[in-house]
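Records of this kind hold a single protein each, on a pair of labelled lines. Below, a sample record shows both lines together.
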Amino acid sequence: MPSLKEIKTRIASVNSTRKITSAMKMVASSKLHHAQVAIENMLPYEHMLEHILKTFLVSTPDTDTPYDVVRPVRKVALIVFSSNSSLCGGFNANIIKMMQNTLEDYYSKGLTKDDILVYPIGRKIAEKVAKMGLKSIGRYPDLADKPNSETCRQIASEVEQKWLSGEVDKVELIYHHFKSAGSQILTRKTFLPIDLEAELYADNERDLSSNIATQKAQQYLKEHGKSSSSKPKENVVPLNDNFIVEPDLKTVLTSLVPKQLHLMVYTSLLDSNASEHAARMVAMQTATDNADDLLRSLNLQYNKSRQAAITSELLDIVGGSVNS
């Protein structure tokens, strides 16, 4: 049985760890709020661009663009999003596992490591790609911590040129789609050739007004039929659907689709960034709760040991007085 001093030392150690996890949870919560604001500010542009593309596709479904040509897959590029740091639960492990499953899928189709290019966004995935001996195109550790639209545009433009020139035949995105603070969906999505209809009808419903991430809180809201979102949903109302296209629809789509590609990379980055902070917030909250449980157990054990020691001393005193 541990001594009182050992138990007291462990209580102090757990208390110190709890302070750290509690502070990290609050920091992650603050960063999550900023990430949610960034997504919310981007959504109106996303919705309007999707509306314009949808209108064009509905009016001329047989429009021929160079971005929807499906060809045999001999070279592949993967854009994979992870974090730079740990302590975010299974966030990075899930991304790495999905990337490995994707690689196995292509290996089974006859491709080799030399046929696959990886754009690693985040230090964790960059380290894994280097360890696996895959071809890595650039390193973007700063982008994982501080999302930047211009860098995303450059990545999208570079990948677009590789695809148009035939250097790669297919491009995929692997990231976490942020739905709410308590729900992040591991996603593998085709980037090129782009399927605009699939993108337009994708599940884009989000809850960006709440930081509720615990399972009990989510279950409570579900049972009581209340949404954790305090803001009503706003639909983007177009000013006019009767677009006048100059010089022609194919030229306009050739200009709009690269903007959509840029938006897909930037949205994936914002999703991954928000999902990382949400995962870290949940992990640190769980660690804090576990520390509280451990402290209660240690305090109970300390009190029992202390009471046993006092009782033993009393018995020794009483026994000594009787003998004398």
Summary: Confidence is low (pLDDT under 50) at residues 226-233. Residues 65-204+212-229+246-281 form a domain with the Pyruvate Kinase; Chain: A, domain 1 fold (CATH 3.40.1380.10). Residues 104 and 111 are 9 Å apart (CA to CA).
